[in-house]
User: Fold this.
Amino acid sequence: MSLIENIIRPEIRDLSAYHVPEAEAYLKLDAMENPYTLPPDLQQELAQRLARVALNRYPAPSYTALKQAIQDKLGVPAGREIVLGNGSDELIAMISTACAKAGAKVLAPVPTFVMYAISAQFSGLEFIGLPLRADFTLDLAAMLAAIAEHKPAITYLAYPNNPTGALYDAADIAEILRAVGDSGVVVVDEAYQPFAQTSFMPRLAEFDNLVVMRTVSKLGLAGIRLGYMAGNNALMQEFEKVRPPYNINVLSQAAAEFVLQHVDVLEAQAAELRSQRTALMAALADLPGVEVFPSAANFVLIRVANAEQVFAKLLEQKILVKNVGRMHKLLENCLRITVSTSEENALFLAALAASLSSK
Ligand SMILES: Cc1ncc(COP(=O)(O)O)c(C=O)c1O
Assistant:
């Protein structure tokens, strides 16, 4: 037996590492980033703030000021405890770690955000992916049956969903929350909330098993890696126990505290992206051979006749989108495109039109 076989769990050896393509010199429309930066005056002010940060010190692990800023500026109800993650990816890992009792299961409608399944696998939890309907709406009856059969410890609902962009019916989510009851948590993942403008955050008091998870990534701060979740305080205290003590570094902490004082700038960018989304979807719908799915996020899912070919032709034109066609059979021939500035969207549309017409 080799060293690797001796020490590495077989299910980890079977995985391939999460692949993120190099995108230098490409028009990057694959990762749902906000294309706008901070205005120069705020960049200057932020630089001065960051210059004063005590890099020689560990962060103060309570993160009181940062949590307060999140509460005040991002709509977390007063009195709710917040748990911070190095991106919501880390929050998902923390929930898995805390809930990984022997035999515990994780349920999510699929296709969805891949980290739910990956994180479950890392923690030795069984992941049950229940197919969405062909139009990417939730199959509520199948979800309720799966909840009754499997009693999942964790149910993930991305609201809106990635990579489909669909926003599930709020009444269906409420029914799932009630069906799960006290046998599990239901994580409503609102990573794209700035573009959906609807939220379960104001409904936390209604459901003891509801966890609302968010990130500042899509709002314009993907680089600082900051996610947060709120839910019933007793549950948050348990999740807090598995949080690495200094997971938010001092630079991210200072940057988030500063930018959240100017959250109106990010909100205006999100509003602009919402109107760009409307324009992009209309232009896509006008292209022959393109099916456009409804989106409440900052990306649009389309289906073409041959996604592999269109993806390759876009790459030749230095445009990177996400080819999700092989992720799940429901996504056959689908591409996911991040909504960007009007200039970048126009470049993409022209390149897509050329890709569709060339052989
Ligand atoms: C539904 C969903 N949740 C969470 C994340 C991860 O966000 P973060 O950048 O905070 O790790 C993503 C990223 O694409 C996502 O699509």
In short: The chain has a mean pLDDT of 96. Residues 32, 87-89, 113, 158, 162, 189, 191, 215, 217, 222, 227 surround pyridoxal-5'-phosphate (CB under 6 Å).
